[in-house]
Amino acid sequence: MDIKNTASEIADNQKPILTSSPLPTYWYTEHAALFIGTVKWALLGAVAGLCVGLGTKLFLYLLTEATALARHVRYGYFRYFDLLPLALPACVWLIKTYAPTAKGHGTEAVITAVHSKNGKIDLPVAPVKLLATLLTLAFGGSVGKEGPCAQIGAAIASGFADILRLSDVDRRRLVICGIGAGFSAVFGTPVSGALFGIEVLYLGRIEYPVLFPCLVAGIVSHLVCGTVPPIPALQTTAGVHGAPLLVLLSIGFGLVFGLAARAMIEALSFVERVVHRFLGHPYIVASAGGLFLAILYTVAGAKYSGLGVSTIDQAMHGVVSISLMAFAIKIVATSVTLETGGSGGIVTPLFFVGSTLGAALATHLGLPPALFAAFGFVAVLAAAANTPIAASVMGIELLPASIGVYAALCACTAYLIVGHKSVYKSQRLGFSKASGLDVPLDIAIGEINHADIKVRPGSFADRLQRYSFRPLKRPKNWKRKQID
Description:
The chain has 484 residues and is mainly α. The protein is 63% helix and 2% strand.
């Protein structure tokens, strides 16, 4: 035995162990910590809302000016959208050169950053996204305006977190505030915008720790930007007799809107697969996409180009007859624009799809088109983005109370019918929409295929499936008849 080592071990064991004794807890300790946290996030949320509101206001002003300038481009039969074969390659060059993460609809990139980078977003993304979206929308690309605002807001929030040297957890929260503030500012819906920011990250989960600062950021950005809500207030349900009938119609229309949202998701995926074959030739793809859009607008009409706000307003007021194929044309135009090189959001096209489908279908059924256009406005958003709470609150926030509750029912129905898909492929799957289905959880929706979604053994769906595919039993005395 080594006496020296043994003596050293004994000496070490005899040393007093230093432990940090916990601080005493007083009656006010909990509320003091809560007060400090509330003040901290009220200030951070307000500053984030102020920055996002100003950035969104600048973007909307530049968008108005750029669109008005582009609309003056006309020479004989040559119109502004005929320049799309040049505008889309310019967008590809701009994004590829200066900010590759600004590709596509901006909310998707922000969701990816929140999940995988703790909200870290390069600040140059904001101006590049702004310029690329202006270029796309000015010349008629079918995209929305919320994506750039969300990405601009998130980039500003991330840069602000760098300046304050916030932790990764706090940075992530502040970037989520930027998403909600951007949505609130651009659409004039502060509460539903804030809820959208905390609901869009997961299918079936809500980021409750960010609820308070996101509400503060949404309200402040809305006040700074001053955007008017996008749809008119409806005061009547004329043509629909009785609440029970309206409940049934809300569910029935919700089924249709859910299928329309699924059509949008599948169209985006289909065009993406087609374009992926020519990944090495992005400028040729962009030019081909611009040429296709120019031909489409020439044949179908220029109302499908750009944001399509005037068509949405007409559907909401129910003053113009809307074609039943209008929503399908918009789906095609949006899918081609986003997947061939255009930059922008996707929520405004969703509003177009929902409102025009609702108005057209209601007109054919002898129902008030403005009412069901408003239902489609929120329901397709709920389904395509998997944000039923934000969409339901938007319906209640924008419509009279007597109508908003039915819009919420329609939105929740559409959300269930669309299935486990989303226009945001980086959105994480948090739960199964049906008790009879087993789905992989906590992975990005874009990584899930049809084979991953299985029927749960012993469920009603499993029994129904077994009964449906059960072979017919022939009677024992059955004999095949001989044909002479």
